[in-house]
C-alpha cells in the first residue's frame, strides 16, 4: 500500500512511528498521525492547516491530544455518555494516576524498552480511509492531504480535536479543491 503514498505521506507515517516510539506508546495511533501532520511544512496538508489557522494553534491541539491520551483515548462525547451513567472519568483517571502514576491509562510501554510499536487499529483505519478517499477523487497517489481528510471523517479524538479548531472534512475539501477559495498547490 505504501508504494501509492507520496513522499509527504510516507514522511507523515514515518514521523508518526517516531512520535509513538518517543512517547513510549504501545502502538502508532491516529493521534500520532495527526501530530506528525502538525510537524509538516511545505506540503498540501500543511497548506490546508495553515489556511484554516491551525498552524498557529499547534500547541492547544497537542495539549488536547495529550489530555485525551491520559483518559485512555476517550473522546469528550464518550466521557459525557459515561457521566450520564454516573461515571466520572476525571475521578477515575485521578484515582488510577494516584495509585499507578501520571499517564497510567495512556497505554505507555516504557517498561518494555527496545520494542517498536506496531500500527494500532485507529492508525490502520486512517491509512485505509486515506486510500479510499484518494480513489474516490480519482487521485493516483495518496498524499498527506488524504491522511488529513481521513482524520476528519473517522470518529475519535483526532476528529473531535480538529473540529474544535475548525478543521472539518468540509473546510479541508473547500481549501483543497476550491469552491471559490484558495486551492492547495
UniProtKB/TrEMBL annotation:
Residue ranges annotated for the Clp R domain, each copy included: 2-185
Give one Pfam hit by family name. Answer: Clp_N
Can the keyword Repeat be found in this entry's annotation? yes
UniProt KW keywords: Repeat
- Keyword check for Ligase: no
| Coiled-coil intervals | none
Q: What InterPro entries does the record tag this protein with?
A: Clp_N_dom_sf, Clp_R_N
Q: What is this protein called?
A: Peptidase
Species source reads Streptomyces mexicanus
